[in-house]
């Protein structure tokens, strides 16, 4: 999973064009990929915390926090 996300970010960073429409689309894709990727990684990390109800709460907090951090990093 981590390798797929790293590859996605690497490919997003490599896409460049002088066309403003293409740049905007690439930027939007990177923003979405960062948000979703962060949520996935955060959820996986959060699910390792606790057991039972604690695991569910940890996953929810991880998804929210990871999505937020991924969005902030990818979208600027």
Structure characterization notes:
The chain has 76 residues and is an all-alpha fold. The chain has three helices and no strands. It has a domain at 31-76. 83% of the residues lie in helices and 0% in strands. The protein starts with a helix and ends with a helix. The mean pLDDT is 79.
Attribute tags:
single chain; 76 residues; mainly alpha; 83% helix; rod-shaped
Give me the count of strands: 0
Which H/E pattern describes the elements? HHH
Number of H- or I-type helical stretches: 3
Ranges where pLDDT stays below 50 over 5 or more residues in a row are none
Mean pLDDT: 79
Molecular shape: rod-shaped
Distance between the termini: 24 Å
**Biggest beta sheet attributes:** none
Radius of gyration: 15 Å
How much helix is in the residues? over 70%
User: What is the structural class?
Assistant: mainly alpha
Strand content range:
under 5%
């Amino acid at each position: 999973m981590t390798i797929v996300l790293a590859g996605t970010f690497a490919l997003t960073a490599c896409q460049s064009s002088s066309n403003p429409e293409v740049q905007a689309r690439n930027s939007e894709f990177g923003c979405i990929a960062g948000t979703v990727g962060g949520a996935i990684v955060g959820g996986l990390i959060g699910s390792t915390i606790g057991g039972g109800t604690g695991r569910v709460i940890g996953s929810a907090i991880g998804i929210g926090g990871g999505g937020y951090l991924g969005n902030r990093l990818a979208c600027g």
